[in-house]
Amino acid sequence: MSWLTNVRNALSFVVPVKKDTPDNLWHKCKGCGQMIFTKELEENLYVCPQCDHHDRIGPQARFEYLLDDGSTDVLTPPRAPEDPLKFRDSKRYIDRLKAARTDTGEQDAFVNARGTIDGHKVVIGVQDFAFMGGSMGQAVGEAFIQGVEAAIADKAPYIVFTASGGARMQEGILSLMQMPRSTVAIQMLHDAGLPYIVVLTDPTSGGVMAAYAMLGDIHIAEPRATLAFTGRRVIESTIREKLPDDFQTSEYYLDHGMIDMIVHRKELRDRLATVIGYLCGARKAA
Questions:
Q1: Are residues 37 and 115 in the same domain?
Q2: Domain count, the chain
Q3: 165, 203 in Cβ contact below 8 A?
Q4: What is the CATH number of the domain that holds 138?
Q5: Domain limits at 41?
Q6: Around Cβ 199, how many Cβ atoms within 10 Å?
Q7: Residue 156 and residue 99 in one domain
Q8: Which regions of 223-273 does DSSP assign to beta strands (E)?
Q9: What is residue 253's three-state secondary structure?
């Protein structure tokens, strides 16, 4: 190390380095690698203007662009046991929860809101991948049931946006029990004659994919979303075959009849309004 480097390092503690631009001014697209102005990306609903890559977004952004102005009423998250198994890996589970809450500003990975879409009453539940990978634990199960009960009380459709890596391992079997609980809740919606609409976003996988993500009356997906129960490499090593390049994508699921439509984020609000109009109109006629 030269004397010049020593002097420069010493001065850096005295004279702060002046940055010409804020750290959050630019965003690197995960699809094409292009640098995009963060403001431009926000105005484009977090869709890359170069390659159309749909970036992951959280509950508040979903509510803002989907629900009519002034109609959003975010529901208070229900209480759930926070660390039922006193789980610890490299960190305590309770510490992971605290860190996720600080980073996202949310209580857990699933948030509900009442509102209207083009005048139609709806209840929307949004899974936040930024909160511990959108993993499904007891709090997510309680929030899902809360959304169903709110939809029944309002006589409104329940729309769920899924984004998850699967069940939350820190809650063990208790997380897996949310699969049958959510299935019973969906049956409650059906008994009330109300639509259950699922919007699959990137990524949706694991226990969530095996539960409420694939039990909708209508399944919509965002373009090029990764949708899977288990990982591609696990499947290939099990069946000893090479899978198609587009395997476990929205487009593959649409081609094989597992979802109903793929809708661009900019068109999603209008498409949901149309679908709700059809479903609720048919219900009123019946």
A1: no
A2: 2
A3: yes
A4: 3.90.226.10
A5: 24-55
A6: 27
A7: yes
A8: 227-228, 261-262
A9: helix
- Is 13 a domain residue? no
Statement to judge: residues 263 and 148 lie in one domain:
yes
> What is the pLDDT tens value at each position of the chain, 286 positions in all?
565 566 556 555 555 545 555 667 999 999 999 999 999 999 999 999 999 999 999 999 999 999 999 999 999 999 999 999 999 999 999 999 999 999 999 999 999 999 999 999 999 999 999 999 999 999 999 999 999 999 999 999 999 999 999 999 999 999 999 999 999 999 999 999 999 999 999 999 999 999 999 999 999 999 999 999 998 999 999 999 999 999 999 999 999 999 999 999 999 999 999 999 999 875 655 5
- Note whether 130 and 36 are same-domain residues: no
Pair 38, 133 in one domain? no
Q: Are residues 36 and 98 in the same domain?
A: no
Rounded Cα gap, residues 180 and 198, in angstroms = 17
Beta bridge partners of 114: 73, 123
**Tokens at 210, concatenated:** 């095996």
Tell me: do 45 and 152 sit in the same domain: no
Residues in the chain: 286
Q: Is 193 inside any structural domain?
A: yes
Contact 84, 171 (CB under 8 A): yes
Which pTM value belongs to this model?
0.89
3-state secondary structure at position 85: coil
CA distance 225 to 219: 13
Do 176 and 224 sit in the same domain of this protein? yes
Question: Residue 78: which of 159, 144, 162 has the closest Cα?
Answer: 144
Cis preceding linkage at 223, omega within 30 = no
